[in-house]
Design goal:
The structure is a single chain. By secondary structure, the chain is α/β, with parallel strands linked by helices. The chain has one domain. Helices cover about 40% and strands about 15% of the residues. It has 4 helices and 5 strands. Strands 2-1-3-4-5 form a 5-stranded parallel β-sheet, with helices on both faces. The relative contact order is 0.20.
Length: about 120
């Protein structure tokens, strides 16, 4: 299973569901960095130093950071989905399909409603 670092804005229910699925997930709050206006570069650096893929809803900023550095354990950029169970399932499935996460960008998109 994957070692993940959930950015500050990432939904805790999804973190908890990923833990139930067997992933080793820590949050910014659990590292004592919550509410500190921690720059995105520092968030990614913490993930790099702890060998964890970064989970975020802050897609735009972290995709830019992903493009600038390749020494990370992966970036998982998600679209917000209020169906936390479905979001956790998509993340878990995409992690499984990706194999090794190091240096990869995984985009988890909310399904579009059927028309």
């Amino acid at each position: 299973m994957a070692r993940l670092y959930a950015n500050e804005n990432f939904p805790l229910p999804v973190v908890e569901l990923l833990r139930v699925a067997g992933h080793d997930v820590i949050t910014v709050a659990e590292t004592g960095k919550a509410d500190q206006s921690w720059p995105d570069e520092d968030v990614l650096e913490f993930a790099v130093q702890d060998d964890r893929a970064l989970l975020t809803l802050n897609r735009k900023h972290f995709i830019r950071l992903y493009e600038r550095r390749s020494d990370h354990a992966g970036v998982i950029a998600c679209t917000f989905d209020s169906n936390f169970t479905a979001l956790a399932q998509r993340i878990d499935e995409d992690i499984g399909a990706a194999g090794r996460l190091h240096g990869k960008l995984i985009r988890i998109n909310r399904p579009q409603p059927a028309s």
